Amino acid sequence: MIIIKCPYCGDRDHSEFSYGSDASIVYPSLDAPEKDWVEAVFFRENIKGIQRETWQHSNGCRMWLEVERSTITHEIKSVKPCHTQLQKVFEK
Amino acid sequence: MTRFNAWNVIKNGFNGNSGWSRQWRDPEPKASYDAVIVGGGLHGLATAYYLAKNHNMHNVAVLEKGWIGGGNAGRNTTIVRSNYMMPGNREFYEHTLRLWENLSHDLNYNVMFSQRSHVLLINNPGALDSFARRYNTMRLTGSDGELWDLNKLKNKIPHLNYDNGRFPILGAIVQPRAGNARHDSAVWGYARAADSLGVDILQNCEVTGVTRKNGSIESLQTTRGDIKGKKIGFAVAGHTSVLWQMAELGNLPIESHKLQAFVTEAVKPLLDCVLIYAPAGAAHFYISQTNKGSMVFGGELDWYKSYAQRGNLPTVKENGEGAMAIMPCLGKLRLLRHWAGVMDMSMDGSFFMCKTPVENLYLNAGWNYGGFKASPASGWYFADLIANERPHKVIANHNLERFEKGINIDESGSGPDPKMHG
């Protein structure tokens, strides 16, 4: 079991969470060339190592989290809320 | 290589089995080859075999970082079927099933292909309509499919849990020609047959670097020295992205996820088909019995991206629940082993077999859940692609450009989320 430390709920089993996807994806502007959209929607770096990714605490507080995790060992380096305003709240 | 036939079996029965030669050589790498296939799994070995057999290319090497068949070839549930519906996939998987049907004779090696039928249980009227459409479409391409009503299903498999109020069993959609094969035999059969046609199988030979020059790959750095190839093929499944980035080619429409499977202790004959229980949104469970008597089963991915070849406990529980939901008689069986394989899950659930931005590099990847069954046709079409330098019309859309063209080959209609294509 992977233990994810939810900023609001504390240490919880990963079965309480839903995996989102790669958190490094930045969607281009709506008028960006189609090539940029194809790259953002369909292409992935698929990192073997430490990856930034999103998880939602779907069976808990339902907060979306940004997690740094090793895709080799599943070790978690950091957890923070995805929402920038919430990040500031939890930093305090 | 000594051929397997009745005469040799009888002869060696009298001389203490001393007349058999080794199954394949253990050659030293040559400096260069006409074609180098990276990945000594089923796909890589099959590609080398068909390059030699169908295209008269004998100066071929297969590079394997560990031992052949030590990756996903040994981490699957050995199911062979061709119940795909999308154009391209349909012809491809029907071709693979036909190759399996004659594979033991073709390779002179018993791959223990057993056409015991693939029985997919139907739990609601919507699924019935959807599968009737799918299997009728398959039949148009010369494949086989049958719809079993509840009486026939109960007659064929009486010991399922038919008393399920939430997900009642209405019947089953069946592919009688589908079944199981023995995974190691397929690996060894392809290795032995390819080796006898001159292919060098280089084990413990990990690619550690890729040297590019003038738009093509000049050589591969490996743990057994530099190896040059006029043509290079990548067939490394879950580690495709790693190799792709080693060649400085950027991102791929692939994520690596892990899929677990389980083996129980052996029991007397209990199930003579491949059985699937997959009510939408509730479970995904498939089970069959090996020739030794063990029950082999599996289910969903672990739901998060991973390169670890080991699974996590919530999925073990889910699979156990799947087993108990459909065959409660399994409840007291003990698990002997379970494992996870690294799946190259693609953005639309279909594979890639195509030319690449590098002139002499060819890609074979994105097999999702379907790599084992696909391996004979994968080798056949990949060899065809490498030898003729153009995609066969069956795989014409299985390339990296299909997303920007809007021709996604999405069997399940799940959209661009790799983990949903299980």
What is the strand content of chain B?
A: 25-35%
The greatest interface here is: A-B, 27 and 27 residues
CA-atom Rg of chain B in angstroms: 22 Å
Helix content of chain A: 10-25%
Largest sheet of chain A: 4 strands, antiparallel
DSSP helical segment count of chain B: 11
What's the total count of β strands of chain A? 6
Through-space gap between termini of chain B? 40 Å
Number of domains of chain A: 1
Chain-wise SSE layout:
The complex is a heterodimer of chains A (92) and B (422).
Chain A: E1 3-6, E2 10-13, E3 18-22, H1 34-42, E4 50-56, E5 64-70, E6 76-81, H2 84-91
Antiparallel strand pairs in A: 1-2, 3-4, 4-5, 5-6
Chain B: H1 6-14, E1 32-38, H2 42-55, E2 60-63, E3 79-80, H3 89-101, H4 103-107, E4 118-122, H5 125-140, E5 146-149, H6 150-156, E6 171-175, E7 179-180, H7 183-196, E8 200-202, E9 207-213, E10 216-222, E11 225-234, H8 240-246, E12 254-266, E13 274-277, E14 285-289, E15 294-305, H9 313-326, E16 335-346, E17 352-355, E18 361-365, H10 371-388, H11 402-405
Parallel strand pairs in B: 1-2, 1-11, 2-8, 4-13, 11-18
Antiparallel strand pairs in B: 3-7, 4-6, 5-6, 9-10, 10-11, 12-15, 12-16, 13-14, 14-15, 17-18
Describe the structure.
The complex is a heterodimer of chains A (92) and B (422). With 92 residues, chain A is α+β, with helices and mostly antiparallel strands. Chain A has a single domain (3-91), classed as Folate-binding fold (2-Layer Sandwich). Chain A has helices at 34-42, 84-91; strands at 3-6, 10-13, 18-22, 50-56, 64-70, 76-81. In chain A, the strands form two sheets. Chain A has a four-stranded antiparallel beta sheet with strand order 3-4-5-6. In chain A, strands 1-2 form a two-stranded antiparallel ribbon. Chain A is globular, with a radius of gyration of 15 Å. Chain A starts with a strand and ends with a helix. Chain B is an alpha/beta fold and 422 residues long. The mean pLDDT of chain B is 96. In chain B, the strands form three sheets. In chain B, strands 1, 2, 8, 9, 10, 11, 17 and 18 form an eight-stranded mixed beta sheet that branches. The longest helix of chain B has 18 residues, at 371-388. At the A-B interface, strand 3, helix 1 and strand 4 of A face helix 8, strand 12 and strand 15 of B.
